[in-house]
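User: Some background: our group keeps a shared notebook of sequences we're curious about, and every so often someone picks one and asks for a predicted structure to add to the entry. Today it's my turn. The entry only has the sequence so far, pasted here. Could you supply the structure so I can complete it?
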Amino acid sequence: MGIYYSIMPYFFYPFLCVLFVLLVIFGIVPKMGGIKKAYERVEKTGKLWPDSSDVMNQDEMGEVLGAISDSSTKDEKEATPHLWAFLVPMAVVIAVTILMDDILYGVICAIVVCFVLYVPTKIMSLGKFCDACYKGLEDMLFIAAVLIASLFFRNAINLIGLPDYLISVATPFMSAAWLPVITFVLVGLVCFATANIWSIPAVCTPIILPLAAACGASIPLTLGAIISAACFGAQACFYSDVTFMSASACKINNVDYAVAQLPYIGIVAGVTCVLFLGAGFILAA
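Assistant: Of course. Here's the predicted structure to add to the notebook entry:
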């Protein structure tokens, strides 16, 4: 934890992302690319999603399978939900996940708690609860299929030795001042290409840190570059788990989601490179 705290000031990319979001919200940074087109589409048509994401918004369009008919909905007398109906299941997810060290058990227990809280108290009818569970499985099916396909792609990338090759190519150009920014770019591109945002940093860290120690580069700064690169790869990759989960929550196609944020990611990544380059020269002096 001491090491983690020491490298937190060098999480340039994540901190810049948070700051950049605020700049976009307050209008200091203008709308660009897919975001700009989305706002124009909503102003003209009122449609909140692009045509390519229609399949993920069938419930809003009245076409979802298993939806309860209007007549049956009118017969249901459901109570008004309260804040505790949300807080209790979330607390169960956190507590069980910590105790069992597995979020899957936490989610399963939370679903059981939701059933106990919602159905007997008539916050939700049994039919609607079952429909909600079915819809949740339906939404996650596409993500699961693509993640399985991306797993084959990741393994193929690792089998041909792409990460090791890129590191070996960049090694001769390493210096104390340039190592952090090269690390950010190199690890970030590999994470972007493979969506392997967990194992790539884990594999690269034992290789890069001895190199940093040998050339006199700042160890905390180099570790910050690795973590920042993983965050960049997770956000920019079209098929990373972060992209899929965020796109699914917004009911947007993962490609539409990724393309819309690329201009912003590119700007933040560019500024991050400048910061790592400047910090590398300062700390190497």
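Suggested note for the entry: Residues 63-76 have pLDDT under 50 and may be disordered. Residues 77-124 form one domain.
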